[in-house]
Amino acid sequence: MERVVLHADLDQFIVAVELLRRPELRGRPVLVGGSGDPTERGVVAGASYEARAHGVSSGTPLRTAAARCPDAVFLPTDRETYLAASAEVMAVLGGTGGVLEVAGWDEAFLLVDTDDPERTAESLRARVLAATGLVCSVGIGDNKLRAKLASGFAKPAGVFRLERANWVEVMADRPPEALPGIGAKTAKKLVARGITTVRALAATPMAELAGEFGPNIGPWLVALAHGYDSSPVTDAPHQARSHGREVTFQRDVRDAELIRAEVLRLCQVVAADLREADELARRIVVTVRDSRFATRTRGAGLDAATRDQDAIERAALTALERFELARPVRLVGVRAELAR
Questions:
Q1: Which of 54, 121, 159, 161 lies deepest, with the highest CB count within 10 Å?
Q2: 18, 50, 107, 163: which one is catalytic?
Q3: Does the pLDDT at position 238 exceed 80?
Q4: Inter-CA distances, 240 with 266, 274, 305, Å
């Protein structure tokens, strides 16, 4: 009997849910985002593999996506439907008898004891497909990091195993940004030091990177390159650290009163979110993105932990006053940091 970590990752989840009710769109480039109108502002929430072949992915502005993939079918987002589909999948995964850690709408970790990890992973895929009509890829690992990377190699609709025994073979010659947690900025700093592969990063003394990246991040980068991950698979409910809402204006806004009114409206929604979740806020943060996509945040503390809408509004307006709105505004957001 072997104890392994499985990472189940639903393939093109949002698009796949839409294709269940629109099967005639299978094989076509499909993009989901905003109201479904690519002439409006917004970003892609989900892209089919056919659309991704045109260089479109989640986070791509809708207008850019339309230019890159003019034949795409655009659909509006339907959050409640995706949440319901996700719940069905997690119910199937939870019935396996292992420890289930839900990591998002479309992914989860499972800690299982099995005589045949590959057969268990294939069985999991089959059960999800039979119960929901959705396809997932499953990564097998000896920790969460390796299992998550493995599911990426398994896509689409496959199974892949990544563990200590084949880590060097699979990962050593890949760039550092192939590792989760290493973004473009960190990768650029590593390249400047001559570190262009996972192998080179793993061979770098921790003390060297601690000087540039800090005493925690530097050694963590080296450990990451070795595939180390000590985080457990846990079925403890996820606890959000904040509740936030934001809005993208269809046209850039210069009117300070209109911006103020939108911030107050968002405060009302955030206060309702706090009441529904039975949470208290300790600090309010306002986000402003201008017409050049420069994004800034300003925060204001609360006198006491609260979910009172008036108190949230006062703090948000205090934070808003700390901005110099020199350029037209594209987006505003309000986030309540929780008291824990």
A1: 121
A2: 107
A3: no
A4: 18, 11, 16
